[in-house]
Amino acid sequence: MPAAEVPSDARDLVKRLIVALAAFVALGVLSWATISDQRIRLGTLAILAMFALKTWVRRKDVLHPDEKDVKT
Predict the structure, then answer these.
(1) Domain range summary for the chain, segments of one domain joined by +
(2) Which of 12, 18, 31, 60 could disulfide-link to 44, CB 3.0 to 4.6 Å?
(3) What is the per-residue pLDDT across 8-50, written as a single tens digit (0 to 9) for each?
(4) Which whole-number Å values give the CA distances from 39 to 33, 36, 45, 47, in the listed order?
């Protein structure tokens, strides 16, 4: 599907997804650079990774809310 045929609300949602994932990366880099204790740093990165994973997994539900999970 060409970009011209994609509805603007879907493009906005994809942009929000990209911004959210970029924010998780930025927070990860900042936490890596500023937290000196290795255990706290890794715990912070693990929490950020969980939120990023949840954001990535939920993208289909947000982009296609009317589709049902049909098992064949």
Answers:
(1) 36-63
(2) 31
(3) 677 888 888 899 999 999 999 999 999 999 999 999 999 999 9
(4) 14, 9, 10, 12
